[in-house]
Amino acid sequence: MMENSLYVSPSPHIHGGDSISKNMYGVLIALIPAFLVSLYYFGLGALIVTLVSVVSCVLFEYLIQKFIMKKEPTITDGSAMLTGVLLAFNLPSNLPVWIIILGALFAIGVAKMSFGGLGNNIVNPALAGRVFLLISFPAQMTTWPLVDATAAFPLTYTDAETGATVLSLLNEGVKELPSYTSLLIGCHGGSLGEVSAVALLLGFAYMLWKKIITWHIPVTMIVTVFVFTGIMHLVNPEVYASPFLHILSGGLMLGAIFMATDYVTSPMTKKGMVIYAIGIGLLTSIIRLFGSYPEGVSFAILIMNLLTPLINMYVKPKHFGEK
Amino acid sequence: MLRTFRIGGIHPPENKLSAGKKITAIAAPKQVIIPLSQHIGAPAQALVKKGDVVKVGTLLAKAGGFVSANIHSSVSGKVNKIDNALDTSGYRRPAIYIDVEGDEWEEGIDRSETLVKECNLSAKEIIDKIAEAGIVGMGGATFPTHVKLMPPPGNKAEIVIVNAVECEPYLTADHELMLEKGEQILVGVTLLMKAANVNKAVIGIENNKPDAIAHMTKLAAAYQGIEVMPLKVKYPQGGEKQLIDAVTARQVKSGALPISVGAIVQNVGTVYAVYEAVQKNKPLFERVVTVTGKAVKAPSNFLVRIGTPISTLIEAAGGIPENTGKIIGGGPMMGKALISAEVPVGKGSSGVLLMTKEESVRKPMHDCIRCAKCVSVCPMGLNPAFLMRSTVYQNWEMAEADHIQDCIECGSCSFTCPANRPLLDQIRVGKAKVMGIIRSRKSK
């Protein structure tokens, strides 16, 4: 008999087969449409920035785990790669290589690994990296290459001609803005992954289908911004731009769909997610409309990341039998 | 729209390999081991001693308390000894060993196949007969059935719910029983309705058993007040509170009994046992057991005498496969891994599942990424990740405040976790601790 060779463990004895890497690679797949759009409009620059960011994020994670934490590197789980792509998507496509590497070091080294790695970080690593760069290199971080609608995959990088984004134009009170069509397809200046609302929404649909995320955070956040900026627009359309412009411009879609939904740094209950997303939406709108920065999504998400443990502590799921 | 319970739930692969396999009786082995604890509550007290001659259906041990159950012999022969024996719980506990000789039944047991519909007994008499026959919940919980039929003062039953959900993957014993003993089950339901003094009963069957739904619906038409309700497939619908929610849209509060919302839930196998006890005078000494697994040659549904070693069942299903890594008593979600194939079948043994070595090994665990998938699937509306954390840090106040004691141990959280965290393992530890704290506080 095989008495001595039986496994004995508590139930359940089967597992659904979901894994961390499946979710991470799922998000990466969802980012493909936005990446293709960025290659189309920003060309060589988008490719270089993304490659540098991904390679340095993965490399930093490997080196820190191997030589400082002295544990088996987990770079194959896809989370470092995802941080790399998301960081790149939040950068202008003409950013010099050395600045990108610094951003990756901050994202992985400071925001992620110093807290203990995946699952233990308190803020979104990619966003922390971006905000670190925005504060350290404000000039380089806020000059975006101009988009030429006719040039597919332009072969320009740091030599690209630069200009303003929709939000900075708004911030300066300029009235001539890109059309909604350009905003939807991505034919306007901005960080390389944020420009096309349509591409980002495609990714959102994919993640919903694969059950990687739920609708709660992205939809609540976008609706909040729409309602808040909409009210302000109704109050004074001369000063405050249309809510449609607000939800289609800047990093709102990218932030709502891919950054605010980061598992580790967002609340665990549906109610908590809604509170968190309303918070991000309000902060974003306030910074955009009344702050000196034209864009506020990154700051808003980081602030709400820090509030997440508190939300998790006090917003519990509705338990069975509770009225 | 089919009904189902409203919070959480998962869809594990069904793998009902033995579906449609007719129930076949397994001959009594040379020796049976009949444990004195086959139910929740106090162990039964042995009435026989070494050397006593017993028949099939002889009372071997009487209930050892209010929450306890009688135990009858499943074979005829001679008591060999009363000694500790390893059982499906994994512990060595007192059991009666009987050497089998012939197959002589107690007089008074009606062995014919004739359906007996009429019953002139009063509610009290029915309950007494159920208690006499030693019937317990046969879905696996093994709570004494007669106790459920005697609600505490101030509670009034309104509905009998028959649990024919069989939401555990692989298991088909209840399914097959409905196809073959549908009439008997319906008579059993009428007996329970009479015993509980209600005029309404619902048989809840998941929609993955359309043949059973059709069959039972057809038969039920001839019975007053019995409805067959198809339910949307979702695990753990067979959980008592989940089934009540699915059927009546009422949720039993934390710590309360099903009777608090007027419901009495009985497993379909139990209902059949009630029929046999009341109408055929037959105590509970045999049951239907599914023997299954991906590497098993002939997945089957067997009618088995209580006390038969699991190994006998496995032999009857084609023998133990070469690469068996785990033997589970019950289904893969809530069953217990057995430490030996020699443990006996008990009243609560719904199945034997053999898993291959590859299926038996857990994958390495990672840090929690707070994806909250465990929160979405928990059918009790708990936060399994936090309950595990509270247990690991021994924060019992927080564990209790987060309702760890409500966990029904269905395993949906561990099944779902992408980081392979042993959520339920830890929650069980914390739950036991917190229940202990609550008990000692109450006793003060």
Structural write-up:
The complex is a heterodimer of chains A (323) and B (444). Chain A is an all-alpha fold and 323 residues long. Chain A has one domain: Ammonium transporter fold (Orthogonal Bundle), CATH 1.10.3430. In chain A, 58% of the residues lie in helices and 1% in strands. Chain A contains 15 helices and 2 strands. Chain A has helices spanning 20-30, 32-42, 44-68, 79-89, 97-112, 125-136, 138-141, 166-171, 180-185, 197-209, 216-235, 243-248, 252-259, 270-290, 297-314; strands at residues 144-145, 162-163. In chain A, strands 1-2 form a two-stranded antiparallel ribbon. The longest helix of chain A has 25 residues, at 44-68. Helix content of chain B is 29%, strand content 19%. Chain B is built from 13 helices and 17 strands. Chain B has helices at 123-132, 145-148, 173-196, 210-220, 240-248, 268-280, 310-316, 357-360, 373-377, 384-392, 396-401, 412-416, 423-443; strands spanning 23-25, 31-35, 45-46, 53-54, 59-62, 71-72, 77-86, 92-100, 159-163, 201-206, 226-231, 263-267, 286-292, 300-305, 324-329, 336-337, 351-356. In chain B, the strands form 4 sheets. Chain B has a 6-stranded mixed sheet with strand order 1-14-13-17-15-16. In chain B, helix 1 (123-132) packs across helix 3, helix 3 (173-196) packs parallel to helix 4 (210-220) and helix 3 (173-196) crosses helix 6. The radius of gyration of chain B is 21 Å and the shape is globular. Chain B starts with 22 loop residues before the first strand and ends with a helix. The model of chain B has no long low-confidence stretch (mean pLDDT 94). At the A-B interface, helix 1 of A face strand 15, strand 16, helix 8, helix 9 and helix 12 of B.
